[in-house]
Amino acid sequence: MQMLHSGNSQTCVAKYHPARHIERINIPVDIEDRTMTTVTDFSVTAPSFSAALTARWTALREQMAKRALYRKTISELQSLTGRELADLGIHRSAIRGIAHEAAFGK
Fold first, then answer.
1. Mean pLDDT by 10 residues, the chain (106 residues)
2. Nearest to 96 by CA among 73, 69, 63
3. Residue 25's pLDDT is what?
4. Cα(106)–Cα(104) distance, rounded to whole angstroms?
5. 88 and 54 Cβ atoms separated by less than 8 Å
6. Assessment of whether the complete model's pTM goes beyond 0.90
7. Residues 6+ away with beta carbon under 8 Å from 101
8. Rounded to whole angstroms, how far apart are CA atoms 51 and 80?
């Protein structure tokens, strides 16, 4: 995207760079020149391959962590005796549901 703007004493040019950085360039202009010029060029770029790969890797690691929490919760609840589960108000058939809710939410 490029924008040109002429004011009283200078022209401001802003250039869009793919790294999402805007560069401002000041160019002196004759004070008598009071013409306003606007140039607009919009272009959309897709995310880079490395950004998409990083996002996918992060999502995969989060899913692996949730799955590990699910397995650990099941293991710990199954290791409790029937009496301990009854004290907690948990029936043995509800262990998987409780573990799923703990790891993945509702």
1. 46 49 52 61 75 94 96 96 95 96 92
2. 73
3. 52
4. 7
5. no
6. no
7. none
8. 44
Asked if 52 and 77 count as a contact pair (C-beta separation under 8 A), the reply is no
Residue with tokens 């490395």: 50
CA–CA distance, 52 with 73 (Å, rounded to integer): 32
pLDDT computed for residue 46 by the predictor: 73
What phi, psi does 12 have (nearest 5°)?
A: -110, 125
Cα 79 from Cα 90, distance rounded (Å): 13
For residue 27, give the H/E element and its range: strand 21-28
Residue among 79, 80, 102 nearest 89 (CA): 80
